[in-house]
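Take a look at the protein record below and tell me what you see:
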Amino acid sequence: MENKTEPPKSAVPEVIVYSTPSCPYCTMAKEYLTKKGIKFTDHDVSRDQGKAKEMVVKSQQGGVPVLEINGRIVVGFDRQLIDDALQRKKPMKREEAIGNIVFDPFSI
């Protein structure tokens, strides 16, 4: 009997897609993620100006699709870049990274 368990939360990629309904590359990117079994949050930037601003701040450009995968930005539908980003771990948050630093003032 096969034992299916959920992957650890840290192994599940966090994916956000900024897209528009009329963009064929947006559709292809979302279909690609779906076929790979990747869950994602989709923001329609043609209807949500706040998310459109957020996308421009993150990607430094206004074209779609923009994918944020584990904190990394992929502009356009590029299978190789998407796959690479999905394979990489999430970068540590600043607080976690600082927590890993041991400072001993007497070791200087």
Summary: The chain is about 35% helix and 15% strand.
